[in-house]
Amino acid sequence: MYEGPVQDLIDELGRLPGVGPKSAQRIAFHLLGVDPADLSRLQDALQRVKDGVLFCDVCGNVSAEQTCRICKDPRRDVTKVCVVEEPKDVAAIERTREFKGRYHVLGGALDPLSGVGPDQLRIRELLTRIGTASAEGEISELIIATDPNTEGEATATYLVRMLRDFPGLAVTRLASGLPMGGDLEFADELTLGRAFSGRRAV
Ligand SMILES: [Zn+2]
Questions:
Q1: pTM score, whole prediction
Q2: Is 22 exposed, middle or buried (0-12, 13-18, 19+ CB in 10 A)?
Q3: What is the CATH number of the domain that holds 40?
Q4: Interatomic CA distance for residues 133 and 128, integer angstroms
Q5: Is residue 64 part of a domain?
Q6: Cα 175 to middle of ligand 1, angstroms
């Protein structure tokens, strides 16, 4: 539709999730008009996201250092670990302020049709983590907070089966009330917060 670099930019932006052709066009023309300093900050951030991103060696969340801020925080309850699919789910749960424990990020959900099996997720790391008592204490409750959709349910079922081998470990799931077929991150804070406080044993 447009010539040269502007169309290239629109095409690239249009490949991002949630950005339709109209938004891509709007963002592209916005960027054309911004201050060079703002543009170079954006360029810088894009560059660093690939070069500089680390994943926490404990929980698997995105982190600025080898161990993330939550895993390093002594005020967080080490006995409770909430299992989520993606880093964005950690952010969603943190926004509810309902949970003061720690996290474990699986890196996705079981989806055999797309080639995602247990080995592609950080399940082994989770089992190791549960089996290893840290200096700060043992994990006594595992809260499964996978997405309320088919893949999330399959993942939760699989985890529950694997976790039967750990006597004394309470395994809970978020209460119902989350919109089915959705993404955890799209649940509003109140609904997600309630689902959290109303979690039940499985
Ligand atoms: Zn961490």
A1: 0.77
A2: exposed
A3: 1.10.8.420
A4: 10
A5: no
A6: 25
